[in-house]
Predict the structure of LysR family transcriptional regulator.
Amino acid sequence: MNTRDLAYFSALVELKNYTAVAARFSVSQPTITVAVKRLETEFNATLVQRDRAHNTLTITRPGLMLYQRAQMVLKDLDLAHSEVQRADQSTIRFGMPPIIGTLWFPLVAGELFSRGLLKYVETLEMGSGYLLQELLAGKIDVALLGSVRPLNERGLDATLLGAHEFRAIVSPEHRLATRKRIAFAELANENFISLTGKFVHPQALRDYSQFAGFDPRIVYNTPNISLIKALVASGFGVSLIVGDTIHASDKVVALRLSDPVADRFNMSLVVRKNFLPNEIQREFISVLFGLRHHHEA
């Protein structure tokens, strides 16, 4: 089977127009027609029904089934091209969210430096949700990701390195500041300052709020945790952040939550299944595994 035929067919399903598909791939329209005919012969099924009188086409049920499978085949093929082309390269394409880069990556940075590995690392710092997609797409090789539940993503191997509780933070003058533990429902009337983008914290805020039975009134979003703590300290609102980010110098009060919500900031070391790291990549990954011992200590 010609994988190019699958690419043509997938585009036809999406565009519903032979001329548009031919233009996308810079080929003639008969090329697309012949490709579809080859696939229909291969699978002994009608994939496309054309109504020439009304200039329309319909993708049959077998055609839709093939389209779904073709998406996986083409994705795997693109990934194979990327990995084969980079097989002998020394570069380590590494992703981590800013919070992990600030709090936990420094715990192993010294060892990476002493082994001479840092010079090979190309780091992408983004939210965990974005990095997860980049990892699946083969844009990065290894990542430290945060999630509210231990990761169980198809196509990925994830090793849980540590789990950290979330805390509500308020200013020292807040009415709840003298409490050590609260129910999240006690924050129902507060203004919330939240992290933006595909971060773990917004999901935790949604889960805690849903359990408490209210929609949080978010007055400001920012990707900067330091700014969040500064705004909370100044009394502009409250927030929900992972407890390990809070220090005495932040001038905020961290409150434990009594709600039986399972959300934690779970940090995992993640690679694609069937990823074959070279020697430098293997050594880099082995050093990252050391973060688990730091969490257990």
